[in-house]
Amino acid sequence: MGKFRLSSFFHSTSSSPSADAEAKKQNRQSFSALSASFRHKDAETNGAAAQASKTETSPQQSTSRMVALARSITAETEKLEAYMKANNLPMPGFDVDAPADFPHLPEDVQRSRQEIIYATKELGRLAHGPRESVRWGVWEFLDVLALTAVNHYGLAKLVPVDSTITLVELQTKTTLDPINLARLLRMAMCNGIFREPSPGVIAHTAASRVLAEDDDMKAWVGFNGEDIFRASGHVLQALQAYPEATSLTRAGFQFAFDTVDKEPMFATFGKDPERARRMGRAMASLTGGEGYEPSYFVDVEKGGYDFSDLDAAGGTFVDIGGSHGFMCVDLANRYKNMKFVVQDLQKTIDSAPKPISPDPQVAERITLLAHDFFTEQVTKDADVYFFRWIIHNYSTPYAIRILKNLIPALKPGARIIINDHCLREPGQENPWDERVMRRMDVVMLALLNAQERTEAEFRELFAAADERFVFKGVRRPKGCRMSIVEAVWQPEEVGKADEGTSAPTVAKARTPAAAAGPEATEVKPTMETPATENGAAAAASGEPKADEAK
Ligand SMILES: C[S@@+](CC[C@H](N)C(=O)[O-])C[C@H]1O[C@@H](n2cnc3c(N)ncnc32)[C@H](O)[C@@H]1O
After folding, report:
1. At the N or C end, where does the chain have fewer CB atoms within 10 A?
2. CA gap 161, 202 in Å, rounded
3. What sign results for the dihedral spanned by CA atoms 75, 426, 453, 269?
4. ipTM for the whole complex
């Protein structure tokens, strides 16, 4: 996909006043044109969507943009509905017995669905107008508050699924007083959560029913509404106090929960099993969902990583922070000769299922090993060192430390594979995925002072850890939000240009220390990153007690 050049979009080369005025007009078009730029690329087979995106969008013609969007919405909705009818599928709805999920849709129908979602959003913004969009956009936290309260008080389980309950009766089952119960419920109803078929009578919708029946979703709402929401509310305070935003003990989370300079989030959760469990379930709900399935890495047919060469050679794959080893089990089911080591903190290793697989041929090739990735790597001479959902949990100084800890174990040619989000330039992602990934990036800031990374930032990360890591690039299986980032340990290659690229790209340095190079990014045992018993700068890891954190 070609790079979108912001500079040509936003900067005028003319100095004449009329040209400047024209340039300003052009700049005002940028946002709709940005989203259109995605649709041009990815919606080529999507006739109506492409039609909408081709529509000229000068401010004077905003009516035609609105109409184009409306037409696109109609056309894509008709496509979606035709598919549902042709396959005897129930129509989408929020009635209590409507299905909570869409079935797996073919690619073109799924694209229609996405187009409806972001075209309706854009049309809504146009209809609100800029000022009112800003005014009411900032009130969206109140939607989160209402949903969080509904979830916290377990209201969904108190309302019968197949009948109704009066507010008066519902109130007797909660500690909320009548006024607060009614106002929070009615706020949630504005978003399709519960309904009030007649005054004072409450009934489920399909959305509130999800909260009654899906405990992982309950955990997702709880973790987001009670941990991330609170942490986010303190991000500005954290940034004002510590603008470099790299420490695990100085994020919004610590300001929210009064643990600044005391402990990382993982340690806080480690002391509170209920909260840790909630986070674990919330993450299971997210990462088991659409676009995150492990099969995107394992199945070569879906664009996953092909380990046939390693399998033929009986190579070794180390999953660092591999939790209970589910990735290794899936890989071992596919590759019958490779060996696997799952490394995690002691507590996680102890709680892994035993045997790890019912198939002895699989189980005997997987070793579970307690290892803290903030200490020197103990599994020497493996072929692959794999990090999934690990590096994005850490700001650059810590991530560099994790990579450096591999070095004593590495043989020439060893591959380091990171499986994380990889951010693209703004406007290159479909708007749905862009929103999810940008939000995740900010969640990482709020909880851990960590970040999602761009390709250039991954490249810089490896370069800062050691110049003998040769960056191989980033690949993303179609339909998956996670990318496969790879570097190879090539001590003999020092001084040569890295493979597949003309010159190292200079990334926007989010951390001055990272840009300054490995020495500057050394994690020293300090109050922020206290030393552990064995002398490693390991407490930066989020502490061994944090092992359930995802
Ligand atoms: C976000 S989860 C990722 C788990 C798994 N890789 C996956 O893809 O779902 C982070 C994992 O890192 C582990 N972890 C946290 N700190 C660690 C450390 N210092 N050393 C080793 N593992 C650690 C946690 O126990 C957890 O299993």
Report:
1. N
2. 10
3. negative
4. 0.99
pLDDT in tens, 360-405: 999 999 999 999 999 999 999 999 999 999 999 999 999 999 999 9
Work out the average pLDDT over 199-211. 98
* pLDDT value at residue 58: 55
Distance 21 CA to ligand 1 centre (A): 53
In tens, the pLDDT along 42-73 reads 433 333 444 444 444 455 555 689 999 999 99
Three-state secondary-structure class, residue 520: helix
447 near 224, Cβ under 8 Å? no
CB 107 within 8 Å of CB 45: no
* Pairwise CA distance, residues 446 & 437, whole Å: 14
pLDDT in tens, 519-545: 333 333 332 333 332 223 333 333 333
DSSP β-ladder status, 339-344 and 453-454: unpaired
The binding-site residues of ligand 1, defined as CB within 6 angstroms of any ligand atom, are: 287, 321-323, 344-345, 348, 372-374, 388-390, 541-542, 546-547, 549-550
* Torsion angles phi and psi, residue 488, rounded to 5: -125, 140
Best mutation site among 320, 345, 405 for ligand 1 pocket (most ligand atoms within 8 Å of CB): 345
55: which DSSP letter? Answer: S
Q: What confidence score (pLDDT) does residue 274 get?
A: 92
